[in-house]
Amino acid sequence: MARGGSSGPGALKALLSLEEAQRRLLDLAKLTPSEQLPVEATLGRYLAAPVKALRTQPASPLSAMDGWAIRAHDMPGPWRIVGESAAGHPYKGTVAPTQTVRISTGALLPDDADAVLVQEDCTADGDTLRFAGEPPEPLDRHVRKAGLDFSKAEQLLGSGSRMSPARMALAISGGHATVSVHRQPQVAVIDSGDELALPGTALAPGAIPASNGPMLAALCAQLTGNIRRIGPVPDRIEALSEAMEQARDADILITSGGASVGDHDLLAPALKTIGADVDFWRVAIKPGKPIMVATRGPQVVLGLPGNPVSAFVTAHLFALPLLRAMQGAGNALPVGESWPSSSALPATGKRAEFLRGRFGPDGVAPVSVQDSGALVPLANADCLIVRPAASAPVASGEPVSVIRI
């Protein structure tokens, strides 16, 4: 499907704002079913139900330092050494007045002990311990109290949380071997266009390697492992419709190119052929204006622009949020960060602009080439600099919002 697209009568149609387009898209998102998985298999998955602690952590007071466990009111000693408490091997007796137990970091405090003296401040002579430092302030400073981290029945993670290595560790520490997560959506990505050739093959005059499909599939792979690629498909309505039929069982169908109104822009008629309903078309953003969103039953179809930078930007603004929303993410939209602009930026017009940028020691600046067909600057970019519609100029040093890519 041709990467470009000429203007036509539809060009006069009013553009949707980015915010309205994203709202309408997320309204189409249907939550995927939940499944119970081992915690160790949930990296990157979104919780379908809250995770509550099945136990208290620590269950009993622990030492936060290597040293000596004592009864605090026995200060300043000396004490008689009566045993040792190590992690996994607690001292089984009770610490009586003027007695002490050698203790390791993470070990259980013996019964009746309520303070830990760090080993650097102590001297052991036979079975006698003497203290030569300043008492801990407060006296239980080096003790991890029961429930310091969490208590039984406390909510550890909310529904919609994305599982990270730290959250996996928290769920396991809370007593869980499995958790409920949303199934990852099935995504089909169609490469379409007479000019597209398989990567690494000889190119006929006017042909280009099909790079959008692999790029879009790789972007989606950050949020789902269920991805199928179809194509390249030639520029014929019948061929595109047949490819779409192959993807009928996908939760999300993504195409790139053909969403404009040129003679070779076949997405709209192909969608009509397969019985899909267009929800909206054309959004006030740059790059990426000719994005089209449609539905076919429960399936959401994203017709992304054909220029690679436009496809990349709209995937971040629409495809990835849709994938998050279908998995119940607490926040589906990309999160912006505030950074100083290290260069002056001009005012914007009626469309929101997403400049490819790079971080530097003085802040963030646009890359030198912003053409929507240029892949070298895109590959060298760290972020998208967000310039809302009708924004005033930005002076060097003033803050701008950025989305990391």
UniProtKB/TrEMBL annotation:
SMART domains in alphabetical order: MoCF_biosynth
CDD domains: MoeA
Co-factor requirement: Mg(2+)
Keywords for the protein's UniProt record, in alphabetical order: Magnesium, Metal-binding, Molybdenum, Molybdenum cofactor biosynthesis, Transferase
Top-level lineage group: Bacteria
Enzyme class: transferase
GO molecular function: metal ion binding; molybdopterin molybdotransferase activity
Pathway: Cofactor biosynthesis; molybdopterin biosynthesis
One GO cellular component term noted in the UniProt record for this chain: cytosol
GO biological process: Mo-molybdopterin cofactor biosynthetic process
Matching Pfam families: MoCF_biosynth (PF00994), MoeA_C (PF03454), MoeA_N (PF03453)
UniProt xrefs under Gene3D superfamilies: MoaB/Mog-like domain, MoeA, C-terminal, domain IV, Molybdopterin biosynthesis moea protein, domain 2, Molybdopterin biosynthesis moea protein, domain 3
Catalytic reactions of this protein: adenylyl-molybdopterin + molybdate = Mo-molybdopterin + AMP + H(+)
Record flagged with keyword Plastid: no
EC code(s) of this entry: 2.10.1.1
Domain MoaB/Mog: 188-325
Function: Catalyzes the insertion of molybdate into adenylated molybdopterin with the concomitant release of AMP.
Family: Belongs to the MoeA family.
Name under which the protein is recorded: Molybdopterin molybdenumtransferase
Organism: Croceicoccus naphthovorans
Organism taxonomic ancestry: Bacteria, Pseudomonadati, Pseudomonadota, Alphaproteobacteria, Sphingomonadales
